[in-house]
């Protein structure tokens, strides 16, 4: 099993997608929020590249069990039910709903990987669950970072490193193949995580994405996002009716 890390969607090549299982990371905050939403009982999360597409799809969706969520410049757009904060989801209010989501970086990264054989959404909070899901595919793997405004995001690289480390542990415990790290970004991601796993919060808060979230008055989102393996759930992305839809594995 070969494993590559791609630091930005703009760096994706066909070789990173064809026949591969791809996990997308937007640790602050979209893929963390998706894991939280699925854990709270949200039935599915429909992914859109922009606010207006999400809004129009939600308006056209029949029934009341829908949830419009996402962000622009870290904050909920006008008329949205929720922003992009993972801690905002709870089972009492959101179980059984269909979410319609658009974010600045994460949802676009998921759509950029549409040509992959299988797609997952991953983060620090479900690193081990994501590692097990990727290993179960038996495919070569690409870990894709969403980035922040077209720039590499440290928190996404940390998330990749956490999943790589978990894949090694999973392989040893299950006596199955461990991934071969096929490019330098994969080596960088693993080393960054191993060197900083005990100070994830400080590192994330000092990075560009963390500073943006803090400036928006949402430091609690960082506290949520750094909870390594807090959730034993992972989302898989499926295509239906021309839409990319995240459901739990």
Structure description:
- The chain has 249 residues and is α/β, with parallel strands linked by helices.
- It has one domain (2-248): putative 2-phosphosulfolactate phosphatase (Alpha-Beta Complex), CATH 3.90.1560.
- Helix content is 39%, strand content 20%.
- It is built from 10 helices and 10 strands.
- It has helices at residues 30-39, 51-60, 91-94, 106-112, 127-137, 154-174, 184-196, 200-206, 208-215, 219-225; strands spanning 2-6, 21-25, 44-48, 66-70, 98-102, 118-122, 141-145, 180-181, 235-240, 243-248.
- The chain has a 10-stranded mixed beta sheet with strand order 4-5-3-10-9-6-2-7-1-8, with helices on both faces.
- The longest helix has 21 residues, at 154-174.
- The mean pLDDT is 95.
């Amino acid at each position: 099993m070969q494993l590559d890390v791609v630091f930005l969607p703009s760096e994706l090549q066909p070789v990173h997608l064809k026949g591969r299982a791809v996990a997308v990371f937007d640790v602050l905050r979209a893929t963390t929020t998706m894991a939280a939403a699925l854990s709270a009982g949200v039935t599915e999360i429909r992914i859109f590249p922009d606010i207006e597409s999400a809004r129009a799809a939600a308006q056209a969706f029949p029934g009341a069990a829908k949830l419009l969520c996402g962000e622009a410049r870290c904050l909920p757009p006008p008329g949205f039910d929720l922003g992009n904060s993972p801690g905002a989801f709870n089972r009492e209010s959101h179980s059984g709903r269909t979410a319609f989501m658009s974010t600045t970086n994460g949802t676009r990264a998921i759509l950029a990987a549409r040509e992959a054989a299988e797609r997952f959404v991953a983060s620090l909070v479900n690193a081990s669950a994501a590692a097990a899901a990727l290993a179960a595919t038996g495919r070569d793997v690409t870990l894709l970072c969403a980035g922040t405004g077209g720039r590499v995001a440290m928190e996404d690289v940390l998330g990749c490193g956490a999943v790589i480390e978990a894949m090694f542990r999973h392989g040893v415990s299950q006596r199955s193949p461990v991934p071969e790290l096929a490019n330098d970004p994969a080596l960088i991601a693993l080393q960054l995580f191993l060197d900083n796993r005990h100070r994830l919060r400080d590192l994330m808060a000092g990075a560009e994405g963390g500073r943006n979230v803090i400036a928006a008055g949402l430091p609690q989102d960082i506290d949520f996002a750094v909870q390594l393996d807090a959730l034993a759930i992972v989302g898989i992305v499926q295509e239906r009716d021309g839409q990319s839809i995240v459901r739990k594995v």
